[in-house]
Amino acid sequence: MFGKRIELFRLFGIPLRIDLSWFVVAFLVTWSLAENFFPSVAVGLSPGTYWAMGAVGALGLFASVVLHELAHALVARSYGMSIRGITLFIFGGVAELETEPPGAKAEFMVAIAGPIASVLIAVSCFLLTGVPWGFPGAAVAVAVLTYLAFINRMLVFFNMIPAFPLDGGRVLRSALWQWKGNLPWATSITSRIGSGFGIALIALGGLLIVLGQSGLSGMWYILIGMFLRNAARMSYKHLLLRNALEGEPVSRFMRAELMAVQRSVSVAEVVEGYFNRYPFEYLPVVDGTRLMGCVTTDQIQELSPEQWEQMTVGAIAIPCPLESLVPPDSDAMGALTRMSHNKSSYLMVVEEGRLLGVVAMRDLLEFLSSQTKLQGA
Fold this sequence. Notes:
Layout: E1 5-11, E2 14-19, H1 21-41, H2 47-78, E3 83-89, E4 92-97, H3 104-129, H4 138-159, H5 167-180, H6 183-211, H7 215-245, E5 261-262, H8 267-275, E6 282-287, E7 290-296, H9 297-301, H10 305-310, H11 313-316, E8 325-326, H12 332-342, E9 346-351, E10 354-360, H13 361-375
Helix pairs in contact: 1-2, 2-3, 2-4, 3-4, 3-5, 5-6, 6-7, 7-13
């Protein structure tokens, strides 16, 4: 979902990150406010003032989205759910939850927390517009507050559409979950609604472009529709995967055939036989089946080609990264999450110092594919 992200700071211990795509939105919002919105609600000001108001309005939108997502995150944490962080990106913001809600009530409370925060912001800004400000330039402050009241109302309206993974879709999912006691079924229904809503936005955007009404708005509707459709489908697939993998040991998905080298093999043989053929950054080194350590591309690059022929991998092996090792009885979903976080394609399965095999992300994703086909997703 995200590209390059920058971590700004932490709120209540929760990392706040910005995807580089957010800066595109920040510029477009500032430009739109400075050239269109503020000149229509605060007449007669200088262009520089309008651009300053636009920048403040964009920062206010930034703060509004952060508070919306922070409300989700804090309520989720109160129910024992793990929070990876909050990320702002081109389509808004998202509180990245690592676990599913423990029940329908928790799902409802987490989902509704964000819209409630936005309602409170909108009401507060609206009330502040009626305050008799007694300082020069009060009209500027009132115009910015008017915009923030308006944009937070729009955030509530859009997010409460009952299409998963929007907040309204999560509220609907909580009701269906409570009714049937079946989370996969509830997620399937709301995800289909979310996917349908995404298709409707794509069609609306295409219609606007064809009719020549607004090419920019049309493209924006298409992009949002594509994002929502993909997010709805992926959310359901992720739930199926979690249900299938949680509680399952990695040994069930482990490949016993080892991509490892004996300690007596020369560095030159490893370069030719492995690193030149496969996109590995490190390779386990074994003595029989006992794990001796790992050899990395960085280590090999520090050696001359002459040393490659003379030295064995056992002589340069270093301890393997702890995050790349899992015991055979560890949770398969946890292993997949770890690979995703570390951007690793596989983990080594180790028991009492012996390398038993590897569990690969590819195998887990292929398992997901088969499960989604069985479920008709």
